[in-house]
Specification:
about 90 residues, two-stranded antiparallel ribbon, 3 helices, about 10% strand
Length: about 90
């Protein structure tokens, strides 16, 4: 069995607010309270899939159309590249 890396995430007020918003998206219903690890896994998966979707769409759509789907994290900046703007 492999070792598991563990880290503690400092929950600032802003991060807690974002986590609560994401929890609402991930939850199966109003009484569901998914663990933070599930919410983080879903967010990471969504980020990776979003970048792949934008990159794939770039082959079929013009940049102006694709830019409508940009987010503050992933977006089409130039006709030939996808870039993360998170950091």
């Amino acid at each position: 069995m492999g070792s598991t890396k563990r880290t503690t995430i400092r929950l600032t007020d802003e991060r807690q607010r974002l986590l609560e918003q994401a929890k609402e998206i991930v939850s199966a219903g109003p009484t569901d309270d998914p663990p933070n690890s599930d919410v983080i896994d879903a967010a990471l998966t969504h980020l990776i899939e979003s970048q792949k979707n934008l990159d794939d769409a770039r082959q079929e759509m013009d940049p102006t159309t694709i830019k409508q789907f940009n987010t503050s994290v992933v977006g089409l900046r130039y006709r030939t590249s996808i870039e993360s703007r998170w950091r």
